[in-house]
Amino acid sequence: MPSSLTLPDPIAAYFMADRQGPDQVAQCFTPKAVVKDNDDVFTGRDAIRAWKKAADAKYTCTTEPFSLELIEGVHAVKAHVAGNFKGSPLDMKFFFRLERGLIANMEVTV
């Protein structure tokens, strides 16, 4: 993660956990959090953990956030994502809504 980019703590924790594994990623979210990725929706920590485990098994990715914007209460993070998927590397957008120090909602788009 570039040292010049300062992310809110829950988002920084997410990108750190992304390198550690599904259990660590799930703990970054509220118990009823929602993740939207590839037109799929995952609700709750167990579903988020399963989503992350499946994604890790399918893709080997590295994610490097490089910009942050706050738009109407939603943190929009752009990141370079490289891995073993078609079109790699590419820049993706991660939209985070935070709640009491955790992520309540995250949407991943291209």
UniProtKB/TrEMBL annotation:
It comes from the Bacteria. It holds the Pfam family SnoaL_2. Residues 18-105 form the SnoaL-like domain. This is Nuclear transport factor 2 family protein.
